[in-house]
Amino acid sequence: MEIAAVVERGTPILGVARDRWMPTPGAFPAFESPPPLEPRRRRRGARAAMATLVLAGAAVGGWALFAPARELLRTSSEPTPSAPPPPPPAPTAHRDTLPWTIQVAAYGTAAKALGLADQLADEAGVATLVTPVQQGGAGTVWYRVLAGSYATREAAAAAREKLWHQGTTARGIGDLLRAPYSFVPATDTSLAALRRRGLPAVRWRSRLLIGAFETPEQAAFTEAKLTRAGVRATLLPRVGTTP
Prior knowledge:
alpha+beta, 39% helix
């Protein structure tokens, strides 16, 4: 080798020349570059912001939870005003229709019908009605004598049985009719004045009534007579007050 030749010639050796220099394995520790500082600072800032938000949310949630509790304690400590007792219900009168009646007779003249009606009212204490009913378009007019006004057919049948038992009418006499409508004249018209004008008015309790009609159409004949006589009247269903 060249090194040995040089040594043999006595030339001092200053160094050894090689083709290229390579470090000896293990001579130096491996070098790693440190992580960049900027991302780490960013993560620290993000964590601090997140912690701030969490603390703020907890504070708001705690206030929301405790605020209703404070309000509940405040309202529960205040005295609750007592509601005044409700007023007692006012008594009401029940108004019932009285559509049923008993036909005890029929006459060709108003005078005969009114005579029997007054007799039943005076002697038997039965409220009566007289109804003009025209047969056909321009036929004969019959005046029905009707006894009483009742809420049901059964009540009318019981009243008819009583009339038979008392002998007021002969047994078997009396048809049950549902005739709810009657004319109610104006209050300034007297019973005598109505009868002088040919209207078969009767006193029914504290009022004056004319007829007891099964339908409004059946009352058309009497309505025409009222118009010719210049008497104001209203067709209404009969009613009564029950306790």
